[in-house]
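Database export, one record per block. Field names are fixed; values are copied verbatim from the stored entry.
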Amino acid sequence: MLIVGIAGGTGSGKTTVVKKIKEVLTNDEVIVIPQDAYYKDNGHITLEERQKINFDHPDSVEFPLLIEQLKLLKSGLSVEMPVYSYLTCLRSKETITVKPARVAIVEGILILTDSGLREILDIKVFVDADADDRLGRVITRDIEERGRSVMKVLERYHDTVKPSHLQFIEPSKRYADVIIPGGGQNQVGIEVLISIIENHLLKENN
């Protein structure tokens, strides 16, 4: 199983890159493992405290569980992937069964910040995008998908998203094998990444 890590700042276009890879590979060839599913369960604190959690800090992610499940998938075993809710900031009691595939895409803002996870990634990708473009996407997404007001989104961006990006996410770019500038709009960069993935798969077959 080829494990591809796709990192980048919030709103950089990671989801678009993943979608375009999935358009080329058949559904049974690729699985997507979102970092967001592995946010730590915060049932021991109040909802008010949970809503103040900095989800852009590496400490918010349960990396050991993510690494363990990737290793199980690589060994040919299915795993029960957690389900995380941004509305309650809790893990659901339900899980999603994920079966092994030829390609596993691990996608998330912090995946290149953890040395243990980097070790098991075969291809490390960083999707780069202009800060203003990222903020525009974050505002739209957080209002539509997470029920936040514009003021709340901007407050969170300045208090946690921007400082954490500069402290953790941007420096993790140095670990990338492939950098895609311009985010999901960079068709040439995405095509280069897809050709690298296809070459890896061809080598596996030979």
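Remark 1: Residues 4 and 55 are 22 Å apart (CA to CA).
Remark 2: The chain has a mean pLDDT of 90.
End of record.
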